[in-house]
Design brief:
globular, Beta-lactam-related, 10 helices, two-stranded antiparallel ribbon, CubicO group peptidase, beta-lactamase class C family, Beta-lactam/transpept-like, Beta-lactamase, 27% helix
């Protein structure tokens, strides 16, 4: 039986006690077995109660792998053609933008759609390069993919997630939409200086960022993936094929193609990949919240954590080497600073 991560627990307790990060929800696998869950610090300025296994955090972009999993299932069932233009499935997304009409689910999942990550200020949404040309992290495209998934399945995304992932995996504290039952035990985000971020209560699922969950729930999803669950062998293997090398950019976005490809970090169908390490990963960034999931498919080691602070990603330098040993070029690619 693997040893529990006592040193990591001590580190997380000390870090949250220092006030740098108010609260952390953490879980890890070793050789595919759940070996550690640590809940440290407080839920936020709104509630000084301790974080526990049921404290719901914003998972931000850790939503995307979950949506990718459902998309692959719909593809297996002959409902969603990953190579068919989304325009042909559910209609126009950007009026007057003819290039966007070539965007497919494959482009969305590999971040090669040509659409931006977020729409800033009042900049009109548009494509910046031909779909499939190169990598540029683009969250906005997931709204179109969501529309297509809901159209072909005749089900809202929240129902798809509940029927295909949350209920089968007993993820009882997870939803893509705010639930009133979360009101009694949820985390509030905090800025770098500790100022609280007003809590969002999302009423309609958003495929790129709206997942609310716990580390205990999300590690169940990761464990399911490492056990090759929920997909045929052919789909599962295709999920992790490196499709395109990433580029640096700001927040991994490179709309004008100035950055060189990173030969050590690639993207599959919804996951970031370290091909030489056999690892997959994803990070999350919502205002006042940070999240990271990392797993090694060969060793079956994995870790996920959620933090209610803009500093939360910076736990990586202590946590990742102990939880998922090995070299991790994705940390440098993400340009994660020290705590």
């Amino acid at each position: 039986m693997p040893e529990p991560m006592i040193d990591l627990n001590r580190f997380l307790v000390e870090t949250t006690a220092s006030g740098k990060i108010p609260g952390v929800s953490f879980a890890a696998l070793r050789v595919g077995t759940r070996i550690a869950e640590h809940y440290c610090g407080v839920r936020g300025v709104h509630d000084r109660s301790s974080v526990d296994a049921a404290t719901v955090f914003e998972a931000a972009s850790l939503t995307k792998p979950l949506v990718a999993h459902i998309a692959l299932q719909l593809s297996e069932e002959g409902l969603l053609d990953l190579q068919k233009p989304l325009f042909d499935i559910c209609g126009e997304f950007i009026p007057g933008d003819s290039i966007s009409r070539r965007i497919t689910a494959f482009h969305v999942l590999t971040h090669t759609s040509g659409l931006p990550n977020i729409v800033r200020d009042k900049t009109p949404l548009r494509t910046y390069f031909n779909p499939g040309e190169r990598f540029s992290y683009g969250s906005t495209a997931f709204a179109w993919l969501q529309r297509a998934m809901e159209a072909v399945s005749a089900s809202p995304l929240e129902m798809l997630a509940r029927e295909r992932i949350f209920d089968p995996l007993a993820m009882r504290h997870s939803s893509l939409e705010w639930q009133e039952r979360f009101a009694v035990n949820h985390a509030q985000g905090h800025e770098w200086d500790g100022q609280p971020v007003p809590k969002r209560r999302v009423q309609t699922a958003q495929a790129s960022w709206s997942l609310l969950t716990t580390a205990s729930d999300y590690i169940s999803f990761v464990q399911h993936i490492l056990a090759r669950g929920g997909l045929t062998a052919a789909s599962y293997d295709q999920w992790f094929v490196p499709r395109v090398n990433t580029r640096q950019g700001d927040d991994a976005e490179d709309l004008i193609g100035q950055s060189s490809p990173d030969l050590n970090v690639a993207w599959g169908l919804g996951w970031g990949l370290e091909p030489s390490q056999g690892c997959f990963f994803h990070w999350g960034n919502n205002p006042g919240f940070r999240a990271l999931v990392f797993a090694n498919r060969a060793t079956q080691d994995a870790v996920v954590w959620f933090a209610n602070s803009d500093r939360g990603m910076r736990l990586v330098h202590k946590v990742l080497p102990e939880a998922v040993p090995g070299e991790h070029p994705a940390v440098g690619w993400l340009r994660i600073g020290s705590l």
